[in-house]
UniProtKB/TrEMBL annotation:
It comes from the Eukaryota. Keywords: DNA-binding, Isomerase, Magnesium, Metal-binding, Nucleus, Topoisomerase. One of its GO terms (cellular component) is nuclear chromosome. Residues 184-355 form the Topoisomerase 6 subunit A/Spo11 TOPRIM domain. The keyword Repressor does not apply. Its main location: nucleus. Residues 75-135 form the Spo11/DNA topoisomerase VI subunit A N-terminal domain. PANTHER family: MEIOTIC RECOMBINATION PROTEIN SPO11 (PTHR10848), MEIOTIC RECOMBINATION PROTEIN SPO11-1 (PTHR10848:SF3). The gene is LOC111302239. It comes from Durio zibethinus. This is DNA topoisomerase (ATP-hydrolyzing). It is found in: Nucleus.
Amino acid sequence: MEGNRLSTHSSDLLRKIKELTLSILADLSEGRSPLIFIQRFRIHCTNLDSNCCCSSNKPNGHEILTFQKESHVHRIDVLLRVLLIVQQLLQENKHGSKRDIYYMHPSVFSDQSVVDRAINDICILLQCSRHNLNVVSAGNGLVMGWLRFFEAGRKFDCINSLNTAHTIPVLVEDVKDLVSVAQYILVVEKESVFQRLANDQFCKKNRCVVITGRGYPDVPTRRFLLLLVDKLCLPVYCLVDCDPYGFDILATYRFGSMQMAYDAKFLRVPQIQWLGAFPSDSENYDLPQHCLLPLTKEDKRKTEAMLLRCYLWQQVPNWRSELELMLQRGVKFEIEALSVHSLSFLSDVYIPSKIQQGTYICHI
């Protein structure tokens, strides 16, 4: 929403921006090189023998940016340019995307990842979430099912068209009047599976809400899912491919991403339960050998690295066991492989039976 009145939060951020820039100017005017302290956060480590505090939302060290290091000069330049744009967005009570910001100085920024890093640094410096800066990302997520809500005055009536995909709102904080008679929330990794469920009229046959982030979930998708879980108090299940990347997507929903570890508590859903696909499902559901693909060297490397994450040992050991089994067997398969039995096997048999029989891995 745009308007003339600044929120208390925006005013507080503008004050912090002013204090930060004045301190930098004061150092420069007195011939000192400014020191910018940026705290560092993480959602996991690889020290399996210690009682780490990765999930405590506390910083794990810090980084110091200074003009005295040539490698830091460009990074500070980018940070201050992005900070100026953020200040303008807050003052004018407008929203801009990360891509909008990139194209304001493309020759200086050179790459979108440079802007993304600066935005993360600014969030840490100002101790806020990215959406508080009025910086939004283009939403990729889709939702369908037994749900109705308003966003910025616009009505989303998924219930009226149960198997029609609706885009997930970018400004999640503007979502109001959530109404649902669903019994659970199902998160699926990719759009092809989402469309399979839509074609099979899954939501009409099963009283649920289905969400997809279309791969690695963006911030609006994760924030929207967290909002639904908090407001509706429904069980939430996640269905991903039986491969390292599917597991990593599952972990992103459950624990957050390392890139935005500073904001993980607002971007993770601890209640999420892993519905599948498990390595053991290939036997339990009689998948023929031609549906199983060998793990590549990159798959094995990624799996071995994920197995070292501390949260797999401390919080979800059963998840770790399935990941170890995947590595041991050396094969992977996609969710769509279940279609070898019938086109609607996923909708009619696999998902309903797993939920009814409780053959999923619960959160702790």
